[in-house]
Amino acid sequence: MNISPYEQILMTCVSEIQRYLIKTGANPADAQDIVQDVLVKLIQADIVLAPDKLRPWLYRVALSRFYDLYRREKRYRALLSERFYLIYGHPDQIDDERGWQLEQALQALNDYQIGLVALYYEDDKSVKDISEIYQISEAKVKTDLYRLRQQLKKEMEQNDETK
């Protein structure tokens, strides 16, 4: 299999960017997704950059995607916190300890769970809409939401006991 020199430069830059993103704070799966998005964007742009301009362009696009991902995740966490404050009381009424427990419980959620809660509670999507988005059954959405609420409750109680 012959790889052209341009492709070798591209692959070297891509692996370097992936390592840099992981070092910067992205988890490995997100770093791979970002790098893949960058390559797709390069292909879709249908341009051939000079080797000396390729690396800066790849970094710029990758960092832009990483910052977008970071801001989106930060927004989801803020929305979840706000939504759960509505359940447990207004933020001014919640003592610092309860807020800390909620933050700890929310940090344990994975991307699917965050998306599920954000769609259901913040975007007011129906179970049917969520099932269509994730292409899963409505029963699975209901079950996952129930388990998620139970998980958050359990983790908050555990954080309360370990205090």
TrEMBL record:
Q: Which UniProt keywords apply?
A: DNA-binding, Sigma factor, Transcription, Transcription regulation
Q: Can you supply a Gene Ontology BP term from the record?
A: DNA-templated transcription initiation
- RNA polymerase sigma factor 70 region 4 type domain location is 101-152
Q: Is DNA-binding included in the keywords of this UniProt record?
A: yes
- Transmembrane feature ranges: none
Q: Which residues form the RNA polymerase sigma-70 region domain?
A: 17-75
GO MF entries = DNA binding; sigma factor activity
User: Which Pfam families does the UniProt entry name for this protein?
Assistant: Sigma70_r2, Sigma70_r4_2
The answer on whether this UniProt entry bears the keyword Transcription reads: yes
InterPro entries reported in the protein's UniProt record:
RNA_pol_sigma-70-like (IPR039425), RNA_pol_sigma-70_dom (IPR014284), RNA_pol_sigma70_r2 (IPR007627), RNA_pol_sigma70_r4_t2 (IPR013249), RNA_pol_sigma_r2 (IPR013325), RNA_pol_sigma_r3/r4-like (IPR013324), WH-like_DNA-bd_sf (IPR036388)
Name the family. Belongs to the sigma-70 factor family. ECF subfamily.
Q: Which PANTHER family match?
A: RNA POLYMERASE ECF-TYPE SIGMA FACTO, RNA POLYMERASE SIGMA FACTOR HI_1459-RELATED
This chain's protein is named Sigma-70 family RNA polymerase sigma factor
Q: What is the lineage of its organism?
A: Bacteria, Bacillati, Bacillota, Bacilli, Lactobacillales
